[in-house]
Amino acid sequence: MKILKRMIVLGLSLITCFSAASCSSCKKKKTTEENEATTEFIRNGYSRYSILIADEAGANEEYAAKELQYFMELATGYELNIVKESQAEENAKYLSIGHTDMLAESGIEVNNDQLGRSGYRIVSQGDDVYLFGADNGEDAGTVYSVYKFLNDTVGYVYYSDYTIYYEDKTEVYIKDYDLTDIPTFDTRFINTMKGGSNNEYMLRMRMTPRNNISATLNGHTHFQVIPPDEYYTDHPDWFNGKKNQLCLSNEEMTEEFAKNLIEFIKAEPTRSLFQLALQDNFDGCDCASCVAAIEKYGTYGGVNNVFMNRVSEICDEWLAANQPDRKVSYATYAYYATEEPPVQKDENGNYIKDENGNYIPTCKEVVTRDNVVMRIAFIQMNRNKPIDHVLSANYYENLKAWGAVSNNMQFYTYSANYAENGYMYALNDFDITERNLRLCRDNNVTDAYFVFGYKVTDMACLYDLKAYCMTQLMWNADLKYEELAMDFIEKSYAAAAPYMKEFYNVYRSWMSYYEDTEQLNLSTGDCFSSKVFPKTFVDKLHSLIEQAYAAIEVYKDGDPELYEEIKNKINKEEIMPLYMYLQLYGDSFTSVERSEMISDLESYCNRFNVYYYGETKKMESRLSAWKASL
Ligand SMILES: [Zn+2]
Q1: The pTM is what?
Q2: Residue 295 Cα, ligand 1 centroid: separation in angstroms?
Q3: pLDDT band per the 50, 70, 90 thresholds, residue 454
Q4: What's the CA-to-centroid distance between 256 and ligand 1, angstroms?
Q5: pLDDT tens-digit profile of 430-453?
Q6: Ligand 1 centre from 292 Cα, in Å?
Q7: How far is the CA of 303 from the centre of ligand 1 (A)?
Q8: CATH match for 39-182 among 3.40.50.300, 3.75.10.10, 3.30.379.10, 3.40.50.10490
Q9: CATH 3.30.379.10 domain residues, the chain
Q10: DSSP H helical segments within 3-98, as ranges?
Q11: Nearest C-alpha neighbor of 331 from the set 455, 221, 450
């Protein structure tokens, strides 16, 4: 579903979500002074400009050109031509997109290392403008450069797949550009159905495309590489005593693991990231060899690092000999058994620091190779509190200490509760995202990854607001969560915004109050109860939804399209209170009322791809059970 709407500027200053604000603490941010837009671009239905792409443009370069053409036409009514370079005319004016010959001949610097996977430049030269990211075959940066250009010219902001903002304009001017914009986090992911598989959504949200990630080896993959069915009988010592994990100190297994991994790497020749991580349980291995290895390397995380180094080294040797142009990275988790970093501690269990205040690896073998990605996945942390909160202090220490043994860290965190009914309320982790991302940035974390319900389901429960704020902050960790959230609500709900703001505030206030007074962690375990969500609270949430519907009645006659668009978005947020009513307070309603609520909930869940109410818990089974009880 894609709904576009030109909405009236509400007279509020636009959040500078695209601005590459400079600040001394953000080590990567770099920008130039803003200047007045004076060069005529589109006026009275005419432009001297065309969009220029290389004859052999990559898929994302073509996509960037089409996005620019599409949104510019929506805003101005003028369709810019897209011209292949061999058809270019001598005296025409161009917006050169991506890696054209014209860019190569311009003398403009393209620093691939600086731009990374996502950074971009926009540079004016004469009347022509060059928009490009790194020349790395992926061209995501080029797509983001186009969104920045659209933001500058017609106010374009992509809030969600239901709200795209831009201004109607008959005259568009462009400024003299010399802009370099590098995001705070080089790779940025949100894991949901649309965040994991909808390329248009990912690019417009400025998430990193996932096409470099192995489709096969992603997640908990050890048993895919060494399947117990195939190996256990002949090699029981390659597994732990429970046969639910590999024995990571076993050298013979390690060699076989690398040999098998090479087959996965061969089978997916375009992929550059393969994940090698423990099975999804608490266990490690406690055989004599592993006990000795833990003694030597400090923690089981250290044993995993040594394993990762050996496996990646063998695979890299194979790549160097057989596919010398190919670069592969190997991701693993700091998770459960491998959560603790292999860093020196004193006799009281406190980390030791050197004279410069740095943490000290237990030995040099535990320092991971450059292409080993360490996904810091503290799933047991209270994710409703920032990582440096007193309740999470050990986790923050661990995060910082991991930096002593890895220079390729990803903050891999969870914005859902994976217990029963856990997907049907919002984790109270809203503005915590802002603090966590800044702490991560300041501790050399280069990638950020938020997990919701994985690729099998989209989420309701304020997900679209969260996703907007998360993606904006992953791009620029200096933005303010509350400003982003308020802007999101104003642009998404127009006349209903005051009620949706209250919905957001009431929800957050209650969750914080309850969690703090009861000293509970509502981010994990089975929390879905009438104590946590009392009926008066659900009544309040639902009444705000009803007031939001009433507020948009003003659009019904004059602007029925806008009315339907906003109603649709309110429908999505009604999922949470409706589910709470049906699951916790069914007895308070007549069967006719319940039947209506079930029918509404079912239609909303189908419309918004909300297929699960908890991890592995299918919504259709819940709906069937409710229907059977009518
Ligand atoms: Zn072992």
Answers
A1: 0.92
A2: 13
A3: confident
A4: 15
A5: 999 999 999 999 998 999 999 999
A6: 9
A7: 10
A8: 3.30.379.10
A9: 39-182
A10: 59-76
A11: 221
